[in-house]
Design goal:
The protein is α+β, with helices and mostly antiparallel strands and 192 residues long. The protein has helices spanning 2-5, 53-67, 71-83, 90-93, 112-120, 159-177, 182-185, and strands spanning 20-23, 30-33, 39-42, 95-98, 129-134, 142-145. It is globular and about 70 Å long.
């Protein structure tokens, strides 16, 4: 503030001090650790209801490793996540979608989960929700349900789709922050 006074009546009020901050390069998308070590995120899927718990947990752990300067632990961690996806609880792999408008109105450019709801006769209204699970043995490639007991048959989970959309797509930017890439996770060597 003393330096600013030379240029006029300017002052800066410090709201908080963050010892570690990581910016992805996208506007309003960053994470930081506060002075107590608590993780805070802005613009990431860790707080969104339409991200699976699996995705949220993976992103949170990768962010912590990035911010704690433990870059050497990130690739082994993400590899273990990919290898262990088949052991994850079914509900943790599901994405939850709620309807902001009446189901009957939502017909323009329907997504697979809406088509699957219609095909399965699931009645939806404003504020209702469904869980969506990528599978290989249901119409439109997704099983939609409110409760596991609603599933008509045992789902054959599409783990490759889950890894691609819920892991790789969500952590690739974070890997770059630690000078890593998805290619390293899948076993390709890092070029220097």
């Amino acid at each position: 503030n003393t330096e600013l006074k030379k240029w006029g009546q300017y002052t800066i009020k410090l709201d908080m001090f963050c010892p570690r901050v990581a910016f992805t390069g996208a506007k309003k998308r960053y994470c930081y650790l506060d002075e107590k070590g608590a993780l805070h995120t802005v613009g990431f899927e860790t707080r969104r209801t339409d991200s699976s718990n699996y995705t949220k947990d993976v992103m949170t752990q990768v962010m912590r490793l990035v911010l704690q300067d433990k870059g050497n632990e990130i690739v082994p961690y993400v590899r273990s996540v990919v290898a262990g996806v088949k052991k994850a609880p079914l509900l943790d792999l599901c994405v939850t979608k709620s309807f902001g408008k009446d189901f009957e109105v939502s017909q323009k450019g329907e997504q697979a989960y809406i088509k699957a709801c219609r095909a399965q006769g699931i009645q939806m209204g404003q504020g209702d929700f469904v869980r969506i699970l990528p599978v290989t043995n249901y119409p439109y490639g997704v099983a939609v349900f409110r409760d596991v007991s609603d599933l008509k048959k045992e789902p054959k989970i599409d783990y490759e789709e889950i890894v691609e959309k819920q892991v790789r797509a969500k952590v690739s930017d974070l890997l770059l922050l630690a000078s890593h890439s998805w290619d390293e996770v899948v076993g390709q060597l890092k070029l220097l």
